[in-house]
Design a protein that fits this description.
The chain is of the alpha/beta class. It is built from nine helices and seven strands, in the order βαβαβαβαβαβααβαα. The chain has helices at 17-28, 40-52, 67-81, 104-132, 154-176, 218-232, 240-249, 262-273, 280-284, and strands spanning 8-12, 32-37, 57-61, 86-89, 136-141, 182-188, 254-256. A seven-stranded parallel β-sheet has the order 3-2-1-4-5-6-7, sandwiched between helices. 42% of the residues are buried.
């Protein structure tokens, strides 16, 4: 996809972080857009920003972990603009903690947001893009945590590996079916100054259980503190959207942000081929 002027983008998780930056870059490129977030105040703030930049945009308040809410998002785009050219499956959450202690409802929440929301969106948007027959693109936000692993966040790693595998497999299917007008990328950033460490405030009621002792535990509080630190000390978010759009223009599938993780990615593959399992001592070096 090379041309963006007057094309239509749909962006989930657009109230903060990457989604808000993608929306700003869409505005710079004179795109129309449907921006989506579970938080009304957040998505309206992004809406005001892109409108001040001269963009034509519509905000949708939706919980994309529900298929009917994703359908509402898609219907809004089609009823308002009549097309979808660029899809950012960007909504995401992070959950720390050991598998023995993290509540099962947290696993359900993170998988529904980080993986199922992408399934729901692609299932509905790919037929639209195929019918259009024009150059289109899908960007699924994953993480470097989807290509390398570490201790302390099995739920997050599981969801992000799933997002990477989902993207790869769907792209195989597009090629198998001869759908050559749809490009695809999986975005695998390292630590960036987003709002991810505050994702608890976006937790839907059906996934809440404040009486669960885990949320008052030292493990949970430690995980929250670590998340706050690594996000706030990550790379600035300003230039991220430009890099992602450059990758879209070049039809790059894997979008990586932190070169320092390249040896870890290569080392993981070498260990797999050598039959070596995860080594905590080697991880901590």
């Amino acid at each position: 996809m090379k041309e963006f002027k007057d094309k239509v983008a749909v962006i989930t998780g657009a109230g903060n972080g990457f989604g808000a930056e993608f929306a700003k870059e869409c505005a710079r490129r004179s795109m129309k857009m449907v921006i989506v977030d579970i938080d009304e105040a957040d998505v309206n703030r992004t809406l005001a920003t892109v409108k001040e930049m001269g963009a034509e945009a519509t905000a949708v308040v939706a919980d994309v972990s529900l298929p009917e809410e994703v359908q509402k998002m898609v219907d809004t785009a089609m009823n308002t603009y009549g097309r979808i050219d660029l899809l950012f499956n960007n909504a995401g959450v992070a959950i720390p903690g050991n598998i023995l202690n993290v509540p099962e409802r947290d696993w359900e929440w993170i998988m529904h947001i980080n993986v199922f929301s992408q399934v729901y969106a692609m299932k509905r948007v790919i037929p639209i893009m195929k019918a259009q027959g024009t150059p289109c693109h899908i960007v699924n936000t994953a993480s470097v945590a989807g290509v390398v692993t570490a201790d302390g966040m099995p739920a997050y790693h599981t969801s992000k590996f799933a997002a990477v595998a989902l993207s790869e497999s769907v792209y195989y299917d597009l090629q198998h079916d001869g759908i050559d007008n749809i490009g695809m990328s999986v975005y695998c950033p390292g630590f960036v100054q987003t709002d991810l460490n505050n994702c608890e405030r976006h937790r839907p009621d059906r996934f809440k259980a404040p009486e669960d002792p885990y949320y008052a535990s030292a493990e949970f509080k430690k995980g929250q503190a670590i998340a706050k630190h690594v996000i706030e000390t990550g790379i600035p978010i300003d230039s991220v959207a430009t890099s992602v759009f450059n990758a879209i223009e070049d039809n790059e599938f894997y979008i990586l942000t932190h070169p320092q993780y390249t040896p870890l990615i290569g080392g993981r593959v070498k260990n797999m081929l050598a039959g070596k399992g995860p080594d905590f001592k080697a991880l901590r070096g």
